[in-house]
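Field guide to reading this record: the first block holds the primary sequence, the second block holds the structure written as discrete tokens, and the final block holds curator observations. Each block starts with its own label. This record concerns GntR family transcriptional regulator, catalogued under organism Arthrobacter terricola.

BLOCK 1 — SEQUENCE
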Amino acid sequence: MSIQQNAPLHVRLAEEFMRRISDGTWPPGSQLPSEAVLCKEFGTSRGPIRQALASLRAEGAVTGGRGRPPMVRPAVPSQSFSTFNSFTEWAVGIGKTPGQRTLEVALRDARPEVSEALDLEAGEKVVELLRVRYLDGVPAMIERTCFILEVGRLLFDFDTDSGSIFAFLKGQGVDLYSARHTIDAVAANEEDAELLEQAEGIPLLRERRVTRSASGMAIEYSEDCYLPELTNFTIDNTAERRAALVRVHTEEPKGTHD
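BLOCK 2 — STRUCTURE
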């Protein structure tokens, strides 16, 4: 097990159970061994086994409980907030092959919502990027990103079909320090549907992001739309470490995406 051996038994058991799910020993949709079988295998009582299974249920890896046998949840790759800024890093981390197809890299005047997000004056130039992102060759996300000119101009010397833009920019010394994410649901418009090879109007999971430097300067504004059956997002909280999660009421009509 990768976890420290002096950790509580139920924590070590949860790590081992998760390893078996990750490596396919317990494949998606399969029923886990009974508590009696697990108790015999690990030489323990039911208490630590139940605590470990409860931990996996809390993480969404296992379903069941209240008299129903535990089952491995059917696989939907989940993106943690810890890798939210890098689609490539996340895809590799879940054992998928990331891909991308660039449709546009352009210098143009910032749209009003982009100017507001990036703290720019009206009419200032930004570099806009439009890409389709893939998981194992399947369209998974549409990426619409705007960078301030100082940073975005670097992309004209980069093959944006070659991989992670964030990795490239970090290698150029760009300070990509923090990001604020807003997630909602929208309906695919005609362009989105065509790019994702789906029917118009299907629900998409939209993530809007503003990335800043350590000094607080806005660097990037992105609007990414994911197919929900190919990905979801997770955020982990503990009693000691609580991630900032804000629920915002919006007056924007539901099911629109311009």
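BLOCK 3 — OBSERVATIONS
Residues 78-84, 245-256 have pLDDT under 50 and may be disordered.
The chain has two domains: 9-72, 78-234.
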